[in-house]
Specification:
- It is a single chain.
- Helix 1 crosses helix 2.
- The protein has a two-stranded antiparallel sheet.
- It is mainly alpha-helical.
- The chain has 6 helices and 2 strands; from the N terminus they run H-H-H-H-E-E-H-H.
- It is globular.
Length: 170
């Protein structure tokens, strides 16, 4: 479906159909995002779990809640030794660093290094340009509505995840 002004939307379309289309769009977004992530990982000699870890660290940083090694272990569903090995590889490769918590010296967070940010910006910069171009014709009100949709869906996914059986705490 191409970009349309909201006035051009079919008024006969019911809410259930729109919700189904949003769910379909999110699955497509997830699928292509995963494909792009695999290309980024391969082009930077990273393993798929390395990229997953980078995504968790980036998401936590952008939400103002830096992630610890223990939290990353839970988010990824891997053992503490496995996440420690992964973190050591990511530090050695220059993507991540340990950052002391300014309020609790016993706690250490994971953060991107300048090198890691540069590598990500180099790869994902063209995607950012394309995304901005794709959204340029949409009015701000549509972008605000889309943001509310993403916040709502992300919250629902996190709630669902927290209720799944097993060690899914996080």
């Amino acid at each position: 479906m191409g970009t349309q002004d909201t006035e051009d939307a079919d008024p006969a379309r019911d809410r259930s159909e729109l919700e189904t289309e949003i769910a379909r769009d999110l699955r497509a977004l997830t699928a292509i995002s995963e494909q792009i992530g695999h290309v980024f990982a391969r082009s930077n000699d990273l393993r798929p779990n390395d990229f997953r870890a980078l995504m968790h660290v980036a998401t936590a940083q952008s939400e103002g809640a830096p992630v610890t090694a223990g939290r990353l272990s839970k988010l990824m569903g891997v053992s503490a030794p496995a996440v420690t090995y992964l973190i050591e590889r990511m530090i050695e490769s220059g993507h991540l660093e340990r950052v002391p918590d300014p309020t609790d010296r016993r706690r250490v967070h994971l953060g991107y290094t300048e090198h890691g940010m540069s590598v990500a910006a180099g790869f994902f910069g063209p995607l950012s340009t394309r995304t901005r171009a794709a959204l340029a014709e949409l009015p701000a009100a549509d972008l605000e509505a889309a943001h509310r949709v993403f916040v709502g869906v992300t919250g629902a996914l996190r709630d669902f995840y927290s209720e799944l059986p097993g060690d899914t705490e996080g």
